[in-house]
Protein: Peroxisomal membrane protein 11C
Amino acid sequence: MAKAVAGMVNVLESYRGRDRLMRTLCYSCQLLGGVITQTRGDKQQYGKSFLIIASQLSHCRTVLRLFDDLSMLAYSLQYGLGKKEEDRLIRWISVIGNIFDQLYYPCEHVAWAADAGVIQTKSDIWWTASTALWGLSLLVGIIRSLRILLKLRRTKGKHSESGMPKSRGEIKFQTRSEMLCIVSCLSDLTNAIHWMPPGFLWGGCFPTWLVGLMGTISSLIGIYQTAVGGSAAGV
Structure:
């Protein structure tokens, strides 16, 4: 029990850990709220309360992301043109993904500032731009994971390009990790398209509970990937 509490404290004391937990709670409340508000009777009020919590957590995460530009820039500069990558396609896919991620933050900041009345401009176009960049980043992440899975399939039982053999356990772990990344990105991508203007694919068509479900799935995968030492994308 003490170890579990200590582990939770360590997670909450880190920014990324706290953000992942907030994200999971946000989408879980949206899922519960969406389901409960569809019922009849007094329970609808509980559903509205869950939706209010989800809205506040989402707003909190948006404000906290105001400080993410520099950390993203540091990561992009460290990765550079990905010269350490063995696969040229993965290298350029990753570089393009970093560009999308870097542009996402200022667009979202402008949209937030417009909604808050800090600047005088329409926020709709900036929210659409940030959502589109997020969706493109997720799409690039899916393509990257599919490329890695293809390479893992080809190198099964063979030597890697660096000359070091990969054990079955390593290949199995990485394969599972990339498959989870694909599921996570697809879940978030469906929501990203939903938040695009009506008329673009299924933009604006999802019920609240479905948005919460997709977000909860990707959030839980992110927590699992962190726990086992993998990585997963998600805003």
Notes: The two ends are 31 Å apart (CA to CA). Helices lie at 2-13, 15-36, 44-64, 69-79, 88-116, 124-154, 168-194, 208-228. The longest helix spans residues 124-154.
